[in-house]
Design goal:
The complex is a heterodimer of chains A (258) and B (215). By secondary structure, chain A is of the alpha+beta class. Chain A contains nine helices and eight strands. Classes of the chains: A alpha+beta (258), B mainly alpha (215).
Chain lengths: 258, 215
């Protein structure tokens, strides 16, 4: 009996000490981790832009404005919104539950939005302008072979919307095969200058196929990574479709006509 | 009094025995190629040198400090729950490594993803606690942990150099191979590590006959 008591006491003391050390370290290191996650996301968004140094994170704060869309593609927060509107919206969004807690606009993420039913989801869009060039960046998220894949698509408008650049990320795709959606510059470069509407104005997105027939909106898949390639294709079609209203309003002509 | 000083000296001494504790696991008593421990992560994280290096450092720190803590507590740990206590120490240290990576080496943290958490299940750590730390003094146990971590890290880094060079044509992300070299995708798949590790064991045993039939 005495030895049992000693064992219980030993376990309680050991667990208590361990828990105290870990919680102290968690509280001290979490702000640094949160900053790293935020910087990694900003870098990833900047990497979708052509001719922009993604490692220069200050460009994000300087040149990018965030718009938030609801499930129907309507703007619920415009790029010109002030601090108060942002705080009000974030508070409203946090009330949806599911443990989702946004503290800043950059925290709004499709990964967390996945927890809500389609009609409650919101979609962040980013507008980049450096004085010379203007791009709209949309977020897409889908399924790869092993786990989730996601990415950022920057679009520019001249007489039609064309892809200016893409940046894909993945959680657990196979190195050298599926992971090439992130690692291969050649794969990502294929998307540049592709149209997302066909010549009749019908939404086609950019399809990833084995043998591209329509050079304006099809790119070549990665051999040996068929499931991931199909995943990218589906992610592009579904993902960009959430932003069609936004893109329609973001056309330079429609902005000047207002 | 003199016996006390002698005891203290021997506790942190760095003689021939201690050197052997550090160097043996790198070759003759290598945890991966001789003790056949920690093979899973050796297959999983060696497609590039950078994550392999970070993983090696992580395992070395966890092995060394868990050896140190468990060895310091060895006389107080009740025998019936010794493995639970060992696991608690390992899990806490792994959490510390994971949190530190997330704060100070975020790109490595992202690359290693689940494998950092899986250091807990790395047989080298538990193996050294049971085989060495429970029966030896803290300083010697600490050195044994460092030695085994280095032995594991050595194999990991050599494999990663071979795989990244042939599978991607680069080292630490820098292109090394000439332009005409077409990277061999097979080398970045986990199966490539199996035959690389096989060849390494073959070379090691060809060179050192006494290792044959040891494991």
């Amino acid at each position: 009996m005495q030895s049992n008591l000693k064992i219980y006491l030993y376990v309680i003391v050991m667990t208590g000490i361990t828990a105290a050390v870990l919680s102290f370290l968690y509280n001290s290191l979490e702000p640094l981790q949160a900053k790293n996650r935020e910087d990694a996301k900003k870098k990833s968004i900047l990497a979708s832009l052509p001719d922009v140094d993604a490692s220069n994170i200050s460009l994000f704060d300087k040149n990018i404005k965030t718009t938030i869309l609801d499930a129907e593609g309507k703007e619920i927060l415009s790029a010109a919104a002030d601090e108060k509107k942002v705080t009000d919206l974030l508070q409203k969004l946090n009330k949806r539950g599911e443990g989702v807690k946004y503290l800043k606009l950059i925290d709004v993420d499709l990964a967390l939005e996945d927890k809500f039913p389609l009609e409650k989801r919101i979609y962040p869009a980013y507008s980049y302008s450096d004085g010379k060039n203007t791009y709209q960046i949309v977020c897409v998220r889908g399924n790869g072979l092993w786990d989730k894949i996601w990415g950022y698509i920057s679009l520019s408008y001249k007489d039609k919307w064309t892809v200016a650049g893409v940046n894909f990320e993945h959680k657990a795709e196979t190195p050298g095969l599926g992971a090439e959606i992130k690692d291969s510059k050649a794969f990502k470069d294929q998307f540049k200058s592709k149209q997302i509407f066909d010549n009749d104005g019908k939404y086609v997105s950019v399809a990833v196929v084995k043998a591209p027939k329509y050079k304006d909106w099809e790119v070549k898949s990665i051999s040996g990574a068929t499931v991931t390639s199909v995943g990218v294709s589906e992610m592009m079609i579904k993902g960009i479709s959430n932003y069609l209203n936004f893109l329609d309003k973001a056309k330079p002509n429609s902005l000047t006509s207002k | 009094m003199s016996a006390e000083i002698k005891e203290k000296e021997s506790a942190i001494a760095f003689g021939q025995k201690e050197v052997k504790l550090l160097t043996d696991p790198i070759d003759d008593d290598n945890p991966v190629t001789v003790q056949v421990l920690g093979v899973c992560s050796a297959l999983a994280v060696t497609s590039q040198v950078y994550p392999a290096l970070i993983m090696a450092i992580g395992v070395t720190l966890v092995t060394a400090f868990s050896n140190l803590v468990v060895s310091s507590l060895r006389k107080t740990i009740p025998n019936s729950i010794r493995m639970i206590v060992q696991l608690l120490v390992i899990a806490a240290l792994v959490q510390i490594v994971e949190m530190s990576l997330g704060a100070f080496a975020f790109s490595a943290y992202e690359m290693l993803s689940v494998f950092v958490g899986l250091i807990i299940t790395n047989c080298i750590v538990m193996g050294r606690l049971e085989a060495f730390a429970m029966a030896n003094k803290p300083w010697q146990s600490f050195l044994d942990g460092i030695g085994n971590g280095l032995g594991y890290g050595f194999i990991l880094v050599v494999m990663a150099i071979i795989r990244e060079l042939t599978g991607k044509g680069s080292l630490m992300g820098w292109r090394i191979m000439p332009e005409w070299y077409v990277p061999n995708n097979l080398m970045v798949l986990p199966c490539a590590s199996l035959f690389i590790i096989g060849v390494m064991i073959w070379i090691q045993r060809g060179r050192n006959r006494k290792l044959i039939d040891i494991s």
